[in-house]
Amino acid sequence: MLRSLFLGMVLVTTGPVLATASPVIEVREMLKPDFRDAAALEDYRSRLYVRYRSCAGLAEQKVLSKDEFDACSLAYLKIKLSFLHGVTLERYEGMKPSLRAKANKIGYDAYRAWLHRMTAGLRID
After folding, report:
1. What gap in Å lies between CA 86 and CA 8, rounded to an integer?
2. How far apart are CA 10 and CA 33, in angstroms?
């Protein structure tokens, strides 16, 4: 399923017009599933990724409003946090800056590895 989402995103993000609903409410309401439910966690990551990529497409068309920018940033942060067991958004926000930086880096590295696995073998002509 996720690989088809990536293929779909390639088609969507390469076009000049990206018709999507505002990302603001949707991202805020997305809750991280239990880490033991691999399918739900993968679906959560996929939905966040699609939302994040649609933000990039929207930003190519116009200057994002503050709410849109915040929602897009939140989607990206939630993707990274989804790879950190036990780290909720609330817990992350309560961390000391140095610990937040470490968590962000670990989450980013895991996100990039996940993205690489999901796109391995895809050809964009």
Report:
1. 31
2. 26
Q: Is residue 72 within 8 Å of residue 48, measured between CB atoms?
A: no
Collect all residues with Cβ–Cβ distance below 8 Å to 75 and sequence separation of at least 6.
Answer: 23, 27, 48, 51, 52, 55
In tens, the pLDDT along 1-14 reads: 444 444 444 333 33
Spell out where the chain has E strands: none
Token reading at 12: 């969507």
- Its pTM stands at 0.72
Q: How many residues does the chain have?
A: 125
Residue type, 26: E
Contacts of residue 26, Cβ cutoff 8 Å, sequence gap at least 6: 51, 71
Torsion, Cα of 25, 53, 97, 63 (10° steps): -70
Q: Please give the full DSSP string across 32-95, using - where no structure is assigned.
A: PPPTT-HHHHHHHHHHHHHHHHHHHHHHHHSPPPHHHHHHHHHHHHHHHHTTSTT--HHHHHTS
